[in-house]
Specification:
The complex is a heterodimer of chains A (298) and B (947). With 298 residues, chain A is of the alpha+beta class. Chain A has six helices and 13 strands. In chain A, 44% of the residues are buried. Chain B is 41% helix and 11% strand. In chain B, strand 15 and strand 16 form a beta hairpin. The chains are: A alpha+beta (298), B alpha+beta (947). At the A-B interface, strand 1, strand 3, strand 12 and strand 13 of A face strand 6 and strand 20 of B.
Chain lengths: 298, 947
């Protein structure tokens, strides 16, 4: 178990007064067999008059709020401390990928696989002939699932250059592939769309990375913002994760915020304002290892 | 923002598996030439005998199968034995009830029908010509008739389908049993972009997801009815079919009675009742109809339905969510809303949870639904139910969910995502339509449905390969040959392929009524597909009944005291703003027309049009935007445009500037007028003519008319049809007259043109006066009307002060012609002459045109009316005080006469001029204040934040 502390601050600055604003945030890290949330707090400034909380159908906790006093700035800060366990190696990941895909294909007579839901297209990560052609370059017939998936991660990592600002939250997988650039979200979408286009189940995972790497290791991309990676299904309801942006498998230095079909399902924050003129947004994320306090850099 | 969702689906006119080998059969276009032939008269009263039968392979709605190709004499005047002659009894009844009508009479009916459509300005704008003018709605003279026996079968089948669709919605957003049990592939539910994840787990108020469901039906060659598609995302047509009914039944009242055609109103009433019963506020609910706005192709029907159902027509920007509750922004502030009849596509409803780029929706609406605070009819998220692929799975689903077999079969359908389906299609593909499983509007394939019957062997083979590769993206559906129904086209009775849309409307818990009627869509002659978007026509659907004909109307039976209060519709802020601008544009158009007319009627002789008057006219016309500034007026050029900013409303979307208008001209004092060159009358006339027709130049007559029409168009739910028609007539007449004048120029030169245009302006002025009358005397004097009147008075006050100020300043009043011009511009010649005959003096002028509180053109009357109406406006927010605002209107009636008539050392009535100038400025700034107080919050759009 590793204890990590996350601070995630989102700051909107507006060119003119915002008269009214509706927002929701999903900033509480998820709780599962591998990860336990010890503490969580959410600060919203200015103080919202109307605030409610709900769990969605996928057990994601969502805080909704409405600010009806004129404001020029909104700051949302979440603080959480989380215990993360190392990821176990899944069984069944060595089967040929077609065997896995066949388990997920629709057959009116076959038993239901809940993971079939994750084969389905979603608004930002849908199958496309071009992506399918690309993914088949590494998913050769009979290749073991995990091996092929890791090769696919490598291909996506090479094909799509990490370029901040090249895309936005509405960019779909096929658009990012055509641009050949994007951020972690786009790499994850392309990887997911590829897996789905050959009948495999994949999920989008959002979360955080340890800001300062252990001594001697490189600092990871995405460490100063929220991050995204991919979860791939293999039989017996097991999933394994891959991070195409950093070209590695996530470990206990990754904190999971939420899982969904794509970014749109689990966006950490969304808002609609009236007024406000032009706006800028800045996001700051810090993840500290609570046992080994970071050494200040010179 | 697809509106009609009329699949260009289309259905084949051909039959048989080998149809692809056969060229498309000639659909007869010749019909029976009724305009000639020796035996024309003999056939009077025997209309049935004039009809052509449907081609082989199609059910003929009017004639018995096997009636053969010999059409003559099949039908005699005696309807009773019509069957014996091959005419189906209901059509025999229809034709015979037309009695002695001959083809000429039918042509006259058809002419009346198109006039009715024109008069009501029934429009349908197809996708590809968005931005262009709205297209007239196409309606056939003859109804599509469904017998009582057929209807019983359809009704039971449609009801069952409605229950089924509702259960599927509840399941897809709830337990998802259909997925777990393998009855539906998840690709067609959660994988369909029309399935909206934010809706998962939601329970709508009263458990009602889909109060309104539409099915498109085909009548096959054996006379069986098939469901071809299901429409659940705010299906279009419920307004058009009412309009069709009013017009067509009005043409054939006898046939309508004889056939015992069931009435429609009861179903709409039941729907409204069901919605109110399920609404969180019950009887005290406020119902609104949510539309994407005037840009939408079926806008006509949105406004029509709102008027028919007696509910407020709103756009997303009119609604706001506060604390999970929905409110309407009205002139009185926020008013709660409990039921939303939604004609806005699913994904656009809520930019906070659905499409973030939607500017049409209401942020927070989905959460308000979750909180049980609003009933949305229909709930968003049913897009997946519309997929053709679903139809193939329905028989098993029906058994599972309702324990019954489907009563009304679907056209056989194969979703190509299933290997078994692709195997079936190895042989059967040629007889199908291949459709994208997901419409392109939702991110699916950009491809219309393809008739496989038209593909050759090679193309078919290519498609089979493609289906193997792209499987789930495609669905194949067996082509069902459509039945043919008689239509009246250019003097002939011709058979046309028809697809019939019917509607299930909720009338209580888990129960739907089938609207006894519908919308039949007819193929174009040369087309084998049925689509309004592709230029088809429509027909009224007559459902015969053996039971009671229901005579109820939309009017509530008993109106209690509470109802009286409730039926007073609140005025939405946006509607209020449109009314205000309708007032301003109508008044401006009228005044501009009068001034142009006066300018054009000036005499050429120098004595009767002195230089002072010419200068005054140029100055006024330039100031009001009725002509371009003459090139030599250097001093003027810079100061001429100031008012234009204020005088033009942002019609769509633009954020207005409320900067106070500084009138530079007023401050420049007397010198400005001397920069105005002396322009010959002929040149003034041509400048006025040039400018008035330019509909892009702000404030030209053409622009004012267009703006008036556009603004009125957004208010069609509030204006009487007669009022709207007057506005259209005025605009159309002006365009026609201008075109006519061009023709005159070619024939008779410039003089003839000027004369013709002068007449045109006189005509236009008369039409505009009638509109003024309709607004003054035929509208309920609610807050909306007050705003309209306030808009008028502001425009009148500012324009008339401009005329008077510049005329006096130019010294035009020293001449009789100038005096006449000003009196005429104020429409006060008769009043003046009655009092002062032909004596001219400043005091009498000031008295008549400024101080008279009984002359509706005098500034005192205008300002008093303006202040009075302002004071009665509702208080929209705590910091707005209408009474205080009214006090800012210049108190013209108390201006001292002596002071106004005072002449200074330069010989000018300087104090009069200063007062007029200040009054004009006050009028413009009043417009800004009203905008800020009552309309600002309605205008400011919502935007999603970037992350």
């Amino acid at each position: 178990m590793r204890a990590l502390a996350v601070t995630h601050e989102t700051r909107y600055s507006y060119g003119s007064l915002v008269e009214h604003a509706h927002h929701w945030v999903r900033l509480r890290p998820l709780q599962d067999t591998r990860q336990r949330v010890q503490q969580f707090s959410l600060a919203i400034d200015p103080w919202p008059r109307h605030r409610t909380e709900r769990r969605d159908a996928h057990d994601i906790r969502e805080v909704r709020f409405e600010i009806d006093s004129p404001h020029r700035e909104l700051v949302v800060t979440s603080r959480s401390s989380v215990e993360v366990a190392p990821t176990p190696e899944p069984d069944g990941a060595d089967q040929p990928w077609e065997t896995v895909a066949n388990l997920l294909a629709f057959d009116a007579r076959a038993p239901w696989q809940p993971a079939a839901l994750e084969v389905c297209n979603s608004p930002l990560a849908f199958a496309h002939p071009d992506i399918r052609a690309l993914v088949l370059e590494v998913f050769q017939p009979g290749r073991p699932l995990r091996e092929a998936a890791v090769a696919w991660m490598g291909l996506v990592h090479r094909e799509i250059r990490f370029v901040p600002q090249a895309t936005d939250v509405t960019t779909s997988a096929i658009e990012a592939l055509r641009l050949r650039q994007g951020v972690c979200q786009d790499l994850a979408h392309v990887m997911i769309a590829g897996l789905r286009s050959i009948g495999l189940a994949a999920r989008y995972v959002s979360g955080y990375l340890l800001t300062l790497p252990p001594p001697g290791q490189p600092r990871l991309i995405g460490a100063d913002a929220s991050h995204a990676w991919v979860s791939v299904w293999c039989p017996n309801a097991q999933w394994f994760e891959l991070d195409p942006t950093n070209h590695r498998a996530p470990g206990d230095d990754y904190v999971t915020l939420a899982r969904g079909r794509d970014y749109r399902d689990i966006a950490p924050i969304r808002g609609v304002i009236r007024g406000g003129g032009s706006h800028t947004v800045s996001v700051r994320v810090t993840v500290e290892d609570l046992e080994t306090p970071p050494t200040p850099t010179a | 923002m697809a509106g009609f969702h009329f699949d260009p689906v289309a259905l084949s006119l051909f039959a048989g598996p080998s149809a692809h080998d056969v060229p498309a059969p000639e659909v007869p276009v010749h019909g029976v030439p009724l305009t000639e032939g020796p035996d024309r008269l003999d056939r009077r009263g025997q209309l049935g005998s004039m009809a052509l039968p449907a081609p082989e392979g199609h059910w003929d709605e009017a004639f018995q199968a096997g009636a053969g190709t010999v059409w003559a004499n099949r039908f005699s005047a005696s309807a009773a034995n019509g069957e014996a002659h091959g005419v189906r009894s209901h059509w025999a009844d229809f034709f015979s009830s037309l009695g002695e009508l001959g083809p000429d009479a039918l042509d006259a009916h058809a002419e009346r029908l198109s006039r009715a459509l024109r008069d009501d300005d029934v429009t349908y704008t197809a996708h590809d010509d968005l931005g262009g003018p709205a297209r007239p709605w196409a309606l056939n003279l003859f109804p599509f008739i469904i017998s009582a026996a057929d209807w019983a079968e359809i009704e039971a089948g449609v009801r069952q389908r409605a229950r089924l669709a509702e259960s599927m919605m509840a399941d897809a957003y709830g337990p998802q049993r259909l997925l777990r049990e393998g009855l539906l592939p998840s690709a067609l539910v959660t994988g369909h972009p029309g399935w909206l994840r934010p809706l998962q787990g939601l329970r709508p108020p009263g458990g009602l997801w889909l109060p309104i469901i539409a099915l498109d039906l085909a009548h096959d060659p054996e006379g069986r009815w098939w469901v071809v598609s299901q429409r659940t995302q705010s299906p279009a047509g419920l307004g058009y079919l009412l309009e069709n009914r009013v017009i067509v039944s009005g043409q054939f009242p006898a046939a309508f009675r004889t056939l015992r055609v069931q009435r429609l109103a009861a179903s709409y009433r039941a729907l409204m009742r069901a919605l109110i019963n399920r609404s969180p506020m019950g009887e005290d609910s406020r119902v609104v109809l949510l539309t994407p706005g005037v840009v939408h192709e079926t806008w006509f029907e949105h406004a029509y339905l709102a008027r028919y159902l007696g509910v407020t027509l709103v756009e997303g920007g009119d609604l706001t969510i506060r604390g999970d509750r929905v409110f309407l922004k009205t002139l009185k502030g926020l008013e709660p809303v409990h039921v939303i009849l939604r004609l806005l596509d699913d994904d656009w409803c809520d930019p906070l949870e659905l499409r973030a780029d939607s500017a049409l929706g209401v942020p927070g609406l989905v959460q308000a639904m979750r909180a049980g605070q609003v009933l949305v009819a229909n709930a968003p998220g049913s897009g997946f139910i519309e997929s053709p692929a679903l139809l193939g799975f329905l028989p098993a689903i029906s058994e599972r969910l309702t324990g019954e077999a489907l009563r009304l079969p679907s056209a056989p359908t194969w979703w190509c995502g299933e290997a078994a389906a692709r195997a079936d299609l190895e042989r059967g593909l040629a007889n199908t339509w291949i459709k994208p499983t997901v419409p392109s509007g939702l991110g699916g394939r950009r491809q219309d449905a393809i008739s496989a019957a038209r593909l050759d062997e090679l193309a078919l083979a290519q498609w089979r390969e493609r289906l193997a590769r792209e499987g789930g993206d495609w669905t194949a559906q067996r082509a069902i040959p459509l039945s043919m129904t008689p239509t009246w086209e250019s003097g002939c009775i011709l058979p046309r392929a028809a697809l019939v849309r019917v509607y299930a409307l909720s009338d209580g818990a888990g129960s739907w009524q089938v609207l006894p009627g519908g919308l039949a869509r007819l193929a174009r002659t040369e087309s084998d597909s049925v689509s309004m978007q592709l230029g088809g026509s429509s027909a009224d659907v007559w459902v015969m009944t053996e039971g009671q004909v229901d005579h109820s109307t939309m009017l509530p039976g008993q109106i209690g005291l509470d109802d009286v209060q409730r039926w007073r519709r609140p005025v939405a802020s946006r509607a209020g703003e449109n009314l205000f601008w309708l007032g301003r544009y109508s008044e401006r158009a009228e005044l501009a027309t009068r001034l142009v007319r006066l300018g054009l009627s000036l005499s050429d002789s120098v004595e009767s049009t002195p230089v002072a008057l010419r200068r005054a006219i140029v100055r006024i016309a330039v100031e009001l935007g009725l002509m371009d500034a003459p090139p030599t007026t250097e001093g003027l050029a810079g100061s001429v445009q100031p008012a234009a900013r204020n005088r033009t409303a942002p019609l769509q979307g633009a954020v207005p500037t409320f900067a106070p208008v500084l009138d530079a001209v007023a401050e420049e004092g007397p010198s400005a007028i001397h920069f105005v060159p002396d322009i010959p009358i002929g040149q003034i006339a041509s400048s006025l003519i040039l400018a008035m027709r330019d509909d892009r130049a702000h404030n030209s007559v053409a622009y004012d008319l267009a703006a008036m029409r556009r603004t009125a168009g957004e208010l069609r739910d509030r204006l009487s049809p007669a009022h709207w028609r007057m506005i259209c007539d005025a605009c159309d007449r002006f365009s026609a007259d201008c075109a006519q004048a061009d023709l005159t120029t070619e024939l008779g030169g410039g003089r003839a043109r000027d004369a013709s245009l002068r007449q045109a302006m006189v005509r236009l002025e008369t039409l505009l006066t009638a509109i003024t009358g309709a607004q003054a005397d035929r509208m309920t004097r609610d807050d909306g009307w007050r705003l309209l009147s306030i808009g008028r008075q502001i425009e009148r006050l500012a324009t008339l002060t401009t005329v008077l100020e510049f005329a006096v300043e130019a010294g035009a009043m020293r001449h009789e012609a100038g005096f006449d011009f000003v009196l005429d511009a104020f429409d006060s010649s008769i009043t003046y002459r009655a009092r002062y005959q032909r004596r001219f003096g400043l005091a009498s002028l000031v008295d008549t045109l400024i101080l008279d509180v009984d002359n509706p053109r005098a500034l005192a009357w205008v300002s008093r009316t303006l202040a009075g109406r302002l004071a009665r406006l509702p208080v929209p927010a705590e910091d707005v005080d209408p009474a205080a605002m009214a006090a800012l209107v210049p108190d013209v009636e108390n201006w001292p006469l002596e002071e106004l008539c005072e002449i200074d050392a330069d010989g000018r009535p300087a104090r009069l001029l200063a007062r007029l100038s200040a009054c004009r400025t006050a009028a413009w700034s009043m417009s800004d204040r009203i905008g800020i107080a009552w309309f600002t919050h309605a205008r400011m759009g919502s935007r999603s934040l970037r992350v």
